[in-house]
Amino acid sequence: MSTDHNGGKLSRRHFLMTGGGAALAAAAGCGGKPEVQTPTEVEAPAVNEIARHRVLGRTGFKVSDVSMGCGSIADPNVIRYAYDHGMNLFDTAEVYGNGDSETKIGQAMQHMDREKIFIVTKLGIDDGPDEQAILDRYQKCLDRLQTPYADALYIHGAADVNLVTNEPFHSAVAKLKADGKLKHAGISSHGPRGDEPDSMEKVLGAAAEDGRFDVMLLSYGFMNKDEGERVLDACKAKNIGTTIMKSATGLVEMPVLDLENPSERIQGWLDYLEGQGSTREEAIERIKAYIERQKPEYEASLEASIPFMEKYGIKTQDQLDYASFQWVLRNPDAHTICPSMPNFDMIDRYLPLTGTELSAAGEQFLSEYAAAFGQRECDFGCTECTSACPEQVPVNTILRYAYYYQKQGRQKHAMRKYARLAQQAGVCLDCKAPCTGACPRGVHVPSRLFEAHGLLTVV
Amino acid sequence: MRRLLLTAVSLLIALAIPAFAQSVSVPTPDGWQPADEEYTYGPDNLWEPINGAAELFLSYGFRELKMRDFEQGIQFISISIYDMGSPLNAYGIFERETGSGGEHFTSPGASTIIQAPYQGLMLKDRFYVKLDAASGELDAGGFHTLLQSVARSLPGGNDLPKELSYLPEEHRQPGTVAFTNRDFLGFADLSGVISARYQDPNTGTEYQLFSFRPGKDVLGNLSRQWTVKEDGDTVMAWREVPYQGFIVIGKQDEKILGLAGLEYLEESKELLQTWF
């Protein structure tokens, strides 16, 4: 019998997102500021089991619409709990805890019907392992999982389209299938990373065309819907199964900077400073002084967000997250969402999403949220802005080099790369900037180029 | 909201790294040549080199990663040095990531696990070091030598974290001390937990005993699912654990201990009391 972690059946739960959606519906009806419904005013039927399944493409597997990401699992009973409530796809990888995640899934599987679940594991192959290395590593995955086979093996986090046709991987897959140790090949992509990044769309689009991948893991949400939907269309055309990650974006609640009752993160810094020889009082004073110096920018950002949150009655992170996941689930081509669920509370939190639908008001809210707070970072694989530039400045390339400089600490590398460009951003100084507004993600191109040129130019 | 998030994250990261950290670099081992330059990653972009594995590192207070590739003839290795901010955090992630076994060494560092021919893992002070060999040419001795050169370049001592001594040694099963920074036993309200497995020599009963890193208001942060009562001079809190009986936490004066893994509540409380 399914039980919750209170030791009894799941009680009627107060469904938080319905509160947010209802607030929007009220706004649509009366045309004024919505009446805010607090979460406790809204109830939904008790949810003990997954309520909807979809066919995972040509795998033929009927997957639960809400599945379990197992990136960081402290206890195998959490996995068992998810299974007992109907989740039947478990996503892991060799690199998750260096095998710890697979080990815990293997422990939990002793209490599962193996035929009723779909186990995904992944191997990174960026460093070019040969076929035997892939076979050896995969066998260790199976040993940790305590299963004679996995349902799918993915190329993990592919950011180079050339990995799609990696022959050691495909020859290893062929052998594993012949030996009954693997059912399907798959691939996952987060998007661009590294030196020569390819977009998620480019990698997964190529994988769909390749024909040897039966299932994929992609990033898809209302904040990146265009790219995600192009990938989903490509998968649908080839009857490829789709599992979705990174659907919930955005933040409602700011971290509390309370040094008298430190959060885990602040406590971590206090521990670190004390470990370096400071007294606790000294550590607190140093952190306070730093926060004071940053306060003006922090408060300006907070002030800018208040009108939006008040308009939609958004008070909790759950309201935003629920809407985000429902938005994905409304697309039948997204076969299952795979959020990370490291504890019992997260399972109880996401389980009620099963079988739900996003209201029209909720969809409107998310559309406005994306427009107001859309990601202000360059997607280095995108070239939308370059067509607006009369001087053919390679904007995405220059911003990628600035990223190397600022985020990866590779200053010399970034400056060398920039120096070799045929067209640099120095020409932008006297330009009327027709690129302004050209970025679909809201990046202010002229100012970012000015900053990049200043960083990357050798004086 | 995204701007708000980025501002907060930038603030918190900036707080941690340039103001206070003594950053390290990956040393070039004798006889090896750099195959690329050194890469640096922080909490906001750790996903780039390790994808979803970043989640676990972030849960253990990750600060900074330095990584670099090296080559020697046809051999190719990657050295990653994770600054986890404290020896206890580094110990926690090291224990999680070495659960698959391997050959154990007490040096270099505080502990080293070698899973030849592909990987060597080392714990030293607040650092967790991973050495990966793509082609599988290295033997255990080769890994050991390389890790020694990395250990020499890192600050700090070779002792295990002092917090591990919080738990009594009597009846403790060897090699079972763990640090779980989040979601101990699957509970979101149990964090910063030092635990170990114990066995009663008379009855053979096995259970877990645990404590918390200092400074945490443990009982004050428990969710409503816990029952909290005073029992003489001890405050006790308990709840059921899915599939495995009960978990009990007791506080007497300033000492806090917990016990889990027994089927019955009264048995759990009685056994926990014996440890105060």
Tag the structure with descriptive keywords.
heterodimer; A: 459 residues; alpha/beta; TIM Barrel; eight-stranded parallel beta sheet; two-stranded antiparallel sheet; 10 strands; globular; disordered N terminus; B: 276 residues; alpha+beta; Protein Transport Mog1p, Chain A; eight-stranded antiparallel beta sheet; seven-stranded antiparallel beta sheet; 6 helices; 15 strands; 32% strand
Write the layout of secondary structure elements.
The complex is a heterodimer of chains A (459) and B (276).
Chain A: H1 16-30, E1 53-55, E2 62-64, E3 68-69, H2 76-84, E4 89-91, H3 100-108, E5 118-123, H4 131-145, E6 150-155, H5 167-178, E7 182-189, H6 200-210, E8 215-219, H7 225-237, E9 241-245, H8 264-275, H9 280-312, H10 317-329, E10 336-337, H11 344-350, H12 360-373, H13 395-407, H14 411-419, H15 445-456
Parallel strand pairs in A: 3-4, 4-5, 5-6, 6-7, 7-8, 8-9, 9-10
Antiparallel strand pairs in A: 1-2
Helix pairs in contact in A: 1-10, 1-12, 2-3, 3-4, 4-5, 6-7, 13-14, 13-15
Chain B: H1 2-16, E1 33-34, E2 39-41, H2 47-50, H3 54-59, E3 64-72, E4 75-83, H4 87-97, E5 103-105, E6 111-115, E7 119-124, E8 127-133, H5 140-153, E9 178-180, E10 193-199, E11 206-212, E12 227-231, E13 234-240, E14 246-252, E15 255-262, H6 265-274
Antiparallel strand pairs in B: 1-3, 2-3, 3-4, 4-8, 5-6, 6-7, 7-8, 9-10, 10-11, 11-15, 12-13, 13-14, 14-15
Main beta-sheet strand count, sense and barrel state of chain B: 8 strands, antiparallel
Total beta strand runs of chain B: 15
CATH superfamily heading of the largest domain in chain A: NADP-dependent oxidoreductase domain
**Which second-level CATH architecture of the largest domain in chain A applies?**
Alpha-Beta Barrel
Shape of chain A: globular
Mean pLDDT of chain A: 77
**Domain unit count of chain A:** 3
The third-level CATH topology of the largest domain in chain B is Protein Transport Mog1p, Chain A
Percent helix of chain B: 10-25%
CATH class annotation of the largest domain in chain B: Alpha Beta
Q: Biggest interface pair, residues each?
A: A-B, 91 and 78 residues
By secondary-structure content and strand pairing, the structural class of chain B works out as alpha+beta
Q: Give the strand content of chain B.
A: 25-35%
Order of helices and strands of chain A: HEEEHEHEHEHEHEHEHHHEHHHHH
- Number of continuous helical runs of chain A: 15
